[in-house]
Structure prediction request, 575 residues.
Amino acid sequence: MITIEDIQKLSELSRIKIAPEEQETLRTQIESILGYIDQIKKATLVSDAVSQKPTVQAGALRNVLREDGEPHMPSEFTERVLASAPAREDNYLKVKKIM
Amino acid sequence: MIDVSKLTIESAHDHLIKGDFTAVELTQTYLDIIAKKNPEINAYREVFVDALEQAKQADIKIKSGKVGSVNLLTGIPFAMKDNILIEGRIAGASSKILENYKASYDATVTKKLKEAGAIFLGRTNMDEFAMGGSTENSAYGATRNPVDPTRVSGGSSGGSVAAVAMDGALAALGTDTGGSVRQPASFCGMVGLKPTYGAISRYGLIAMGSSLDQAGPITKTVADSEIIFNTIKGKDKYDSTSADSLFTGKEEKLKLTIGVPRHFMKEGIDVDVLKNFEETLKKLENAGHTIVDVSLPNIDYSLAVYYVLMPAEVSSNLARFDGIKYGAHADGKDLLEDYMLTRGQFLGKEVRRRIILGTYVLSTGYYDAYYGKARATQNLLKKDFIEAFKEVDVIVTPTSPTPSFKVGEKASDPLSMYLADIFTVTANLVGVPAISVPCGTANREGKDLPLGFQIMAPHFREDILFQLGKVVESVR
Prediction:
């Protein structure tokens, strides 16, 4: 059961304003999708601990780390990256006052 | 004017080398077709003004004839999906939130194609942020199926596929998170490859579900698909999940054992799709391959697992679109309202829906029941495939349970749209490579709508996909 309050809470958590008239449609859609998804609860796991153990075969996801090093020149990419910012001041992104 | 309808990468390359036509002439031919057909099909979001200039550079390379400077892809005109970065050009993911975003670097696949001398004709329409199966979720209108423009191209790489299908490019790149290359390829009669997870670098693709995304070629033939795959594959230091194939090529088999998960094909499949699939199997058997039933005990859960893991990753990946760092910005009374308004206003309906769903399955109290359970079930699926591949060389299914549907037909019911991914999502969840190869048609209202045959192989065994894909092409 998904309520309108759930949708409002999720809207806040995900930082997406959802118009009041859209909330009910979204509620029914999310409920219907979750109704479908709920079938995974029936999947029988031998044991959750065992099945969550990462597989070692090809294609298994694993962390890859590297040594820190090869720093780039200061401000080498600044202009390219900041060129996309909606608002900037010098070499900073400009945002509204936070505190 | 060059007849491009029969051209393949290899034949175009031969013509370019022999001097039958130049890359400039070839590019101009495609540009003329795009100008004529794109207003109806809406495959391209933008045609690059410097396409002919790129072609001139390719012609210089070809004329110089220097060993090593000319490649099979030199002078070959490509279409690129709108979520693949090309430095200095707009990459919008067909979303209002990135409407004027200019890429600050090349994706690795872009870089490799550039080095090979390929020409980029333009960027193509897609479901917003690759979320959808019909390209109707683009903020810029649906891409229509060149075979029947009242129908969808499929998605999310619908623009890239339609571009090739309407002869508006010789090949294209798309991305595939749950079927976004294979399903539109099936709907438009093209070949679409989703490589092994990690076979191709994801660096410079606008991320959707990072543990599932792969770039893949869209082509007219399996041989073309193989050429592009071999050009863009390989380990990349900018994507730690990328890897070189460990396969050495020593175990080639001429006659394959083909596994069919019949227990998974009992309901919800169009009768023409099923009939065509059985006919294709019969032809493969006549060609000397062995068809056997294969059991994948947990495959019924694939789609449910996918629609937990994918939205979870979407909700995290798309948090970066906040109206501050890049893209569109809506102004509110404070920083929080800037975020809320920007994301509420510039993200489309389906994208908002998936972010909300992802936020839900990851939230306190639901995490174990959804995300945790889905990850565990995903591991069961991986084990199912590892077991199955001890008995068979490939696993085959139809690519999509139906041929292309009408524009607007499924737009109001997201769940019915999701069910169209039933056969494709598993390859992404398990990480194995999969290809869709045209295998015939189903007649609807006087139009012969293409159907696709999906082949899945063990990790890094794209070679088997190409081998059997070529057989499917030849017996069709």
